[in-house]
Amino acid sequence: MRGTRTPPARRSPVLRVRVPRGGARRVLAVSAVVAALLVPAPARARSGDTGRDVPALTDRQGRVLTLRGWNIEDKTHRGDQALTGITERHLSDLRARGFDFARLLVLWDDLEPEPGRYSRTYLRRIGRILDWAGRHGVKVVLDAHQDVFGPAFGHRGIPEWATRTDGLPFTAHPDDWFAEYFEPAVQRAFTHLYEDADLRRAQAGMWRTLARRFARHPALLGYDLLNEPMGEQRPGEDQVTAAGRIEREQLTPMYDRLARAVRSADRRSWLFVEPTPVVGEGVPTGLGRVADPRVVYAPHFYDTAMEAGADYDPGAGWIEAYERAVTAYPERYRVPVVVGEWGPPDSTLPNMGRFYRDAMASLSRYTAGWAGYVWCYGGGYCALDGSGAFRPHKELTAEPYAEAVAGTVGSAAYDAGQGVYRLTYRAARRGSAPTVLSLPPGSWRIGADGGTAVVRGTAGRAWVRAVPGSRVTVTVTRG
Predict the structure, then answer these.
(1) Among 400, 401, 381, which residue's Cα sits nearest to residue 392?
(2) What percent of the chain has pLDDT over 70?
(3) pTM here?
(4) What counts of helices (H) and strands (E) characterise the chain?
(5) DSSP code, position 20
């Protein structure tokens, strides 16, 4: 790079921006081995910066990304009606409340209802949602979603024609659907998916189809290759041992296969890989290195007790144990982290305000972003009620943040008590893309020091341009 002389720092005029308003999932049976790992310890956050030693996520202009958003889904409608439950309102409301990210659930059983026959209607509807996302400035990850494998067991995900059980038994658990993952037929179906050559080819073909169709869409950020993968527990194994073996011996090779399938059509998008859900109990993953340069580690962030309806217990050490466990993989393999799902089923309980504050603080230390579960209008997990207002305490997820930084981030933090967000960075020496701030509803004052930074605001976002190579401090203040 050529050296440049940086002029003295100057303060730009303070800009006022007003953002308009409007616009038991499971219970995991925890073994004694898991419980022994849930011992609180201090988080090893680095002083003075954005968190742990985990790499950043970047966009196609090289800017450092922070993703804040929610899952968007339609598990109800099937066949010709698939995805009709998602409307443009979902994306416009998401953006209006200060979020820039959606994890869109894509169901293989709707995409490929018969072997080799892909639904053109389903592909068009995915494209329509991506178009809405692009219109509203929302980045999208396509998530190959499965719950309890798929329709063969009364759920959604992997097609019935790709489900092999060897005649093993299955008993439904209406009051505890996650327990169905431990039924012999379901576990055997995962083994066949991972090991049968024809099912491997079919799964890769599904991803090639999606990548060929959407690789160039400007709203597409990446692909989540398999939601909450599970597997078959062998006799004598506890859940932790089984999870590590499945991740090491079956998931890692699967992700390598699917990465090659995607890369046959898309060389640029990010690939999101998940561990088994056992990581939610504070157990480091057994995943190995995935042979691709653009991999994101995408665990989920759920607590067993809260999933069963309990209130948050700040003294239990769950968030601290989870953070220690979940950062081991990205620190070892030098990949970013985006938490793909999180949030309790009942946000009205007395300690939920504390939970959201603690969770947001933890996620900001080590992730490049997250997607809450789920952006819908109703009760339970829904982010919004029927009127479109945040459900109790979920408004705490809406904070100012820098969704794209054109340079090297020094620090970024939001003080909710003071209502102040502060970002420091060294502006890139090359490139013309601006730094972009995302703002939730309310009145915000924005100031920028460093270089000859210019701030321009619109409803929900602000753009910062700085002299190349300059040191920049941006301050966003409520009121």
Answers:
(1) 381
(2) 89
(3) 0.91
(4) 12, 21
(5) P
